[in-house]
Amino acid sequence: MPDAIIRAQGLTKSFDKGDLALEDVSFDIYSGEIFGVIGKSGAGKSTLVRCLNFLERPSAGEVYFQGEALSGMSRKKLYQARQSIGMIFQQFNLLMQRTVLDNVCFPLEIAGWKRETAKKRAAELLELVKLSEKAGTYPAKLSGGQRQRVAIARAVACGPKALLCDEATSALDPETTRDILSLLRDINLRFGITIVVITHEMQVIENLCGRVAVMDAARVVEIGGVREVFSRPKSEAARALINTDGEAAALLRFLGKNGVSIEEVLGHVWHDN
Amino acid sequence: MFGMIIKGLWETLYMTLFSTFLAYLFGMLIGIVLVVTDKGGLFPVAALNKTLGLIVNLARSVPFLILLIAILPFTRLVVGTTIGPTAMVVPLVVASTPFIARLVESSLKEVDSGVIEAASSMGASPLQIIYKVLLPEARPSLILGAAISTITILSYSAMAGIVGGRGLGDLAIRYGYYRYQSDIMLITVAILVIIVQILQEVGARLARFLDKRLK
Ligand SMILES: Nc1ncnc2c1ncn2[C@@H]1O[C@H](COP(=O)(O)OP(=O)(O)OP(=O)(O)O)[C@@H](O)[C@H]1O
Ligand SMILES: [Mg+2]
What we know:
The complex is a heterodimer of chains A (273) and B (215).
Chain A: E1 4-14, E2 20-30, E3 34-39, H1 45-52, E4 60-65, E5 68-69, H2 75-83, E6 85-89, H3 100-110, H4 115-128, H5 144-155, E7 162-166, H6 174-191, E8 194-199, H7 202-208, E9 211-216, E10 219-225, H8 226-231, H9 236-257, H10 262-272
Parallel strand pairs in A: 3-8, 3-9, 6-7, 7-8
Antiparallel strand pairs in A: 1-2, 1-4, 4-5, 9-10
Chain B: H1 2-36, H2 46-61, H3 64-70, H4 72-79, H5 85-109, H6 113-121, H7 126-137, H8 139-157, H9 168-178, H10 182-210
Bound molecules: adenosine-5'-triphosphate and magnesium ion.
């Protein structure tokens, strides 16, 4: 049995109003793997990932990071644990009044690094994400893909053990998405950082993850190897996710084989109306 | 007459800038506490937030002139007199601090909650988030607010004449209103208009210059 770097046990979350956002969610995430969580909008994915570093305190259940229960940690201890768990977001969430370099310096400042060493480290990370020439630029001037790469550099600056990604590619076009996914894969391989990927997009899971958990209505309804889940889905939710995606992909493949582009087809549809 | 106006101008600037400095200091603190202790804030404390909010609202609903007179005993306690520009600083600060607190509060609330969440996810403490995220990210908006505050305090300070606080407003009332010397009144009004324009323009330019979202 491999080591669980993050263990969720019976996680339940209820907000003031409405149904449960999480209900009795348990799983282990193994050290060094890329773990996916998929589910449709409102399934509770963001709530789940925010519980993993206690940005959201679960109403019941426990999260263990490297064997230690987060709920038992003092504030200071929890802040330290968070420095070992990077996080990136759909909206990038960069500091708009700081340069790219200073954005990457931010977590290092929080961790108490000296200014000079922090700057050196930040410059190395910008090289890693291929944005060295943008060091002095402000985020407002960057494209979405570039912003996400800055966010990735920032999230791994302190050398975390794990990286949480909440819909990290959902605001990006397909090509940029591929770039970001390959950067994540690269980081996983080179530094052995465990990655948790939250998404509603099938191909993100297919391209990146080893194992996947399928969420539906606040619960994890299925969990297993990506191939196994996608080829023999046991849950209704997994089947639904695969089918909608599969139909669109099949249509595109069919059109491609016959040398017709989707724009042409849509052009006909609009023209006919 | 010229000397009188220069003296009045100096007194007005002194009252305005000194009061703004102090009021902004207190207002900023209260504004930060209002944001941080709010429900969903960095450190929610409902009781403190509600009480402070109530005090701020009460203080804001008292007209300046009434507040000015009502706190005369307090003013005497603090500066030893109720006459002159320094004595005016007390009611000006008391009256504008709650207003500035609300301005600061709304500036800080404009900061994207996602950015704050990102900082939390990196292990930043609430204090670190305040001075490394909230204040720097809200800087352009805070500067605009500071310009507005200064202008508001300037216009309040013109009422100083009524209780012997001196300054340009005092001149305008004494010579222009009581003695029908409309030339002095016109000059003081012109000077006040110019000061307001300068403050507004400097504030707006500085805010724009420092806002890295626009470049
Ligand atoms: N702060 C909150 N207060 C109240 N309800 C919330 C809060 N955050 C989330 N919820 C509710 O919890 C449920 C799950 O939300 P969550 O954001 O986790 O879904 P999601 O799977 O991430 O969806 P999406 O794909 O749209 O991001 C939703 O019904 C949502 O309305
Ligand atoms: Mg979400």
